[in-house]
Amino acid sequence: MAMLERAEVEALGFAGVGRDVEISERAVFYGASRITLGDAVRIDDFCVVSAGAGGIAIGSHVHLAVGCTLIGAARISLEDFSGLSSRVSVYSSSDDYSGAALTNPTVPDCYRAVAHGEVRLGRHAIVGAGSVILPGVTLEEGVAVGALSLVTKRCAAFGIYAGRPARRVKERSRELLRLEAALLGEDAPR
């Protein structure tokens, strides 16, 4: 995987770029002036990141694996140490699929019914391969979502969720908080 040089990353026109950012030359960005990247961010091949008016904020130590998609008009936030596995899709906007309105961006807005809702992944939230996150969803701190899940509502802190729709299946260990402290120099690993 070929990564962009720092000057090439800066030339994309992001609202902010931290240190040690790695972006594949095969990733695509729309609305880069509404996207901020923290420190130690890695964005792999074939990711599409499209920021609408709400913008996209990607924290530090965040990884977007191959083929991830972040799209929508409302804000999308990925907090520190969160991550998306391959082919995860995050949407902060969605057409009404009921048949009560027309769909797709080629149709004038007066004939459409688009739902918008902020999406937030808390610290240490991780999402498994092929999962979809819909508008208005919050994954609280430490949430883990299993592969191929459909997330349609808020997920409570340190839960492991899976399924279509995703449901809480068990508790996630908080050991990662101690490891984070060690990484950041706040505590030595035991």
TrEMBL record:
Keyword rRNA processing in annotation: no
Coiled-coil features, chain-numbered ranges: none
Keyword Secreted recorded: no
Keywords noted in UniProt: Acyltransferase, Transferase
PANTHER family for this protein: ACETYLTRANSFERASE, CHLORAMPHENICOL ACETYLTRANSFERASE
Recorded family membership: Belongs to the transferase hexapeptide repeat family.
Protein name: Galactoside O-acetyltransferase
Source organism of this protein record: Marichromatium gracile (Chromatium gracile)
